[in-house]
Amino acid sequence: MLLWFSWLITKPARKLQRAAETVLKGEFKEDPNLELGPKEFVKTGITFNQMVHSINQMISSNQRLLSDISHELRSPLTRLKMANALAKRKTGNSSELQRIEVESERLENMINDLLHLSKLKLESHQNKGVVDLFELYGDILNDAKYESKNMNKLLTFNQMPKVLLKVNIPLIQSALENVIRNAIKYANKNINILFLKKETSLI
Hints:
The protein is 71% helix and 10% strand. The chain is mostly helical. The two termini are 47 Å apart. The model has no long low-confidence stretch (mean pLDDT 78).
């Protein structure tokens, strides 16, 4: 009976601990179960959910602000490019106008990168799924192996550990694909990819 009472009393504390661990992993989810039970824990649960809600709002607001700023920069950039094109028609191409065009292209690329980064951060915050490591990377590695072979390079990878990952799937796939493509591009001949599992870490 004492053990049962002890378990019953500490149950709300364990729920709060699990919720805190979830937030620590970057998953900001409100848990209605925290608002059930003893009055003292109910107050704590309500406060915890309010904190998670405020964090979600802050993250979303920051992402919207970054996206809005990037969109607002497009209007003057478009006008600048149009003015540059008109100047070329009237006076012909010159080194100064070419420089304006180059810098405009750089600025446009920076804006596109900001928009892409904003989208990736928002997706990373909101969209996560559980996936097997081979399911996550298998096709990417096989495609890279074929691509490197056509470039007279050898790409190899070890047998992947059997683990399940909770990640933003498109984002993490894109990250590895970028690394592999750079490796294929700059390697002289051989590219060797190793997946190692050490306790709770994947290297």
